[in-house]
Amino acid sequence: MLEILKRAREIAELVRRQDDVLIVTHIDADGITSGAIAFESLSRAGIECDIVFVKNLDLRLIEELANANRFVWFTDLGSGSLDLILKHDIDCVITDHHIPANCYYRYHLNPHDFGYDGTYDLCGATTTYLVARYLGFNYDLVSIAIVGAVGDLQDSKEGKLLGLNRKILEEAVEGKFIKIVRDLRFFGKQTRPIYKMLEYTFDPYLPGISGNERGAIEFFESLGIPLKEGDLWRRWIDLTPEERRLVISELVKICIEAGMPIKLIKRLVGETYILLHEEEGTELRDATEYSTLLNATARYGYCDVGLRVCLGDRDEAFRKARALLRNHRKNLSNGLKLVDEIGIVELENIQYFHAKNEILDTIVGIVAGMCFSKANLDKPIVAFAYCDEGVKVSARATQRLVERGVHLAKAIKIAAAKVGGQGGGHSIAAGATIPRGTEEEFLRELDRIIGEQIGSQL
Asked: Which pTM does this prediction carry?
């Protein structure tokens, strides 16, 4: 930790000497929060800055950045392209958590370089926050950093934040920015009618309830829990502690009867993070809902809206983000229905589906992850969707698969390169872009590599 903080301080000192900075960040919740932390800390330090959001760093973009001749702060990306960045002599700093290219750069902060795991120990936002702490009095930005960590699913391993993220979380709790509450880990506890919260829960898939409005309503009726209080629909936060315990107990029974693994059932309940300075009953009160709201802006090309929400806009930007969120949840539901229709194809070591143009390439990975609730938990899921650059590949594994030796980022990078594409990510989640028509060759190679990874652990 001390070595990481020393590097963070060195990076902050270099940034502080700049008059103008271009922030380049990723288009997801972690990327938006990372960019927001960098943007706000620079603004407070009196440093002029602009921000751009990108899907990935390809050679064309790196050449454009080199020709722009500006100082660049890469957040939540850059590590995997470090060799190209250095080759093009871009004056920059990098705060990222993805697996780095095999080269050294003094102003590069990445947990992997210090023996930590970028999947669980630090995300883009928490890594960027460590630098922001040395740029000025920016301790209040810790809430946004935790939202980024949750949005990057860094709490998915044990239902809570771990490692260096935990240290930052403790700082947030001590500063009275965040409260830790052990609760149901479903989306919509702050904002949705309780039956809608369950109806739109697909991770895990609740038999007879997920995607079934009538089933969700009957579930609460069978427990004698009123859906309304007067004319108002009751939300999870409106239920009594006794009612919440009853619901959780019954959900556990349903999951057991459905044959779900105990490890998955245990993840129904875990730590949730409440942002104490946000209004109760809004999507911004709960870190999970906040991150989903940001994802809804990013996945549809409105990262600027998510950025403005992070920077405090609770009017126009917040209203726009909420509208995008409603559309996002609808698209995820439709995506799951499509997968039910086309089916998931199983190979020896992996399983996959090809959504073609039916699911947006920006959300196909989210759909893939949600499919684990009703797919084979012993094989990684690979999802394809067409995109402007060719075919977007999104792969997801379970923690159990990672423990058995699966490392999706390493596997997908090799498989993508073999067919003329690019890939990377984390052990449990990774992505790539490959040329159209190479999907079968890519699958054969990925299936082989995953088989070797699992075999090496036997």
From this structure: 0.85
